[in-house]
Amino acid sequence: MELLKQKILKDGRNLGKGILKVDRFINHQVDPRLMDACGQEFARIFHDTPAEKILTAEISGIAPALMTGNYLNLPVVYARKTKPVTMPSDVYITVAPSHTKGHNTELIVSPEYLGKEEKILIIDDFLASGATIAGLIRLIEVAGAEVVGIGTLIEKTFEGGRVLLSKFNVPIHSLVSISSMENGKIEFTDEFEV
Amino acid sequence: MELLKQKILKDGRNLGKGILKVDRFINHQVDPRLMDACGQEFARIFHDTPAEKILTAEISGIAPALMTGNYLNLPVVYARKTKPVTMPSDVYITVAPSHTKGHNTELIVSPEYLGKEEKILIIDDFLASGATIAGLIRLIEVAGAEVVGIGTLIEKTFEGGRVLLSKFNVPIHSLVSISSMENGKIEFTDEFEV
Question: For residue A113, what is the nearest residue in chain B, using CA coordinates?
Answer without folding.
Answer: B29
